[in-house]
Amino acid sequence: MAEKQKYLLPEPEKEIGRLTEQDSVITHMMKGVRILAPIDFKQPGFQILDSGTADGLFLRSIQPQLTEPYKLLGFDVMESFFPPVAPPHTTFGIHDISEPWPAELHNANDLVHQRFTIPGGAKKATPREIVHYLCQLVKPGGYIQLVEMDITGTALGPAMRDAWTVTGAFLTAAGAGSDYAKSMPGWLVEEGFENVVDRRVDLDYGVRYKEGDWGVRGAKVIVESFRGVVGACKMMNIEVPGIDLDTVPERAEKELMTEGGVYPLVFAYGQKPLA
Ligand SMILES: C[S@@+](CC[C@H](N)C(=O)[O-])C[C@H]1O[C@@H](n2cnc3c(N)ncnc32)[C@H](O)[C@@H]1O
Questions:
Q1: CB-based contacts of 174: which residues, under 8 Å, 6+ apart?
Q2: Is the CB of 174 under 6 A from ligand 1?
Q3: CA atoms within a 13 Å half-sphere pointing along the CA-CB vector of 43
Q4: Is 216 helix (H, G, I), strand (E, B) or coil?
């Protein structure tokens, strides 16, 4: 299948730039904390698997915290996103999250991480199945951390509410539905994970974020993704009653720059029991 068709949003060639900027904004607003799971990264010998890794931005960023020897594994369906040369200790591979993972990766990883990727697999598997497959990869005593936006979360103004409604229509057509983010912690409990935490974080975007230009940068990047969602809705002939799709990104941008808005995230993490 052509890579263009594999990607949920139009214009995959622009995606790494958008993801990099989005990651910078989120990381700044999270005060540099990417992993909420209580892991002591000073221990040597870790194996960390990042699913939906894109160009490996998450793996690259946590590398300075790790102690050698360690192994980083990045998987994605979009081979063209992988960097031409893998950073040290890092291996990239192709895997579709809607499929069970190879047996040799089961019970083998100290941390399994996946962010903003469930919708990409939801045409062929349910979000619940995707999470089940990921849980199989965690070593006993190891952690999983899943991060997704909660489109049913806080929406302060009418334009952002419409933007999330359109995003919900798109995600429902893509097979993910709109409740998968807030269901993740319960699914980890069902999988037998312990110390499961359901952490909701509302990042302030636009003028609600007062420090530097981060709020504006966040607004720009989220509006860019709304543009992608509107483009995808058009390709999929999705209409949303009462909402003019064409005006959604522009209205959201104006609202973010005058009133501000929030980007609601769910961080779900937990530990696989040792026994
Ligand atoms: C929105 S991006 C998020 C990238 C990165 N995890 C981050 O947080 O910045 C989604 C990533 O998931 C990948 N992806 C989409 N569908 C997938 C699938 N079925 N299996 C594996 N990866 C997939 C995309 O190629 C893309 O790299």
A1: 8, 119, 122, 123
A2: no
A3: 10
A4: helix
Ligand 1 pocket test target in 3, 20, 117 with most atoms within 8 Å of CB: 117
Share of the chain above pLDDT 90, in %: 93
Q: What is the pTM of this model?
A: 0.95
Q: Is 56 in the pocket of ligand 1 (CB under 6 A)?
A: no
Mean pLDDT for the stretch of residues 44-51 = 97
26 lines ligand 1 (CB under 6 A): no
List the residue whose alpha carbon is closest to atom 10 of ligand 1. Answer: 117
CATH architecture of 3-271: 3-Layer(aba) Sandwich (3.40)
Please tell me if the CB atom of residue 77 comes closer than 6 angstroms to any atom of ligand 1. Answer: yes
> Is 144 within 8 Å of 109 (Cβ atoms)?
no
Q: Residue 267: helix, strand or coil by DSSP?
A: strand
pLDDT in tens, 200-211: 999 999 999 999
User: In sequence order, which residues have a C-beta less than 8 Å from that of residue 138 and are 6 or more positions away?
Assistant: 107, 109, 111, 112, 144, 193, 272
**What is the CA angle 126-266-158, rounded to 5?**
100
**d(C-alpha 205, C-alpha 214), whole Å:** 8
Task: Identify any residues that bridge with 71 across adjacent strands, giving them in sequence order.
Answer: 47
- At 50-106, the pLDDT tens digits run 999 999 999 999 999 999 999 999 999 999 999 999 999 999 999 999 999 999 999
- State phi, psi for 114 to the nearest 5 degrees: -150, 130
Q: Is the CB of 78 under 6 A from ligand 1?
A: yes
Distance 173 CA to ligand 1 centre (A): 18
For tokens 């360690």, the residue is: 70
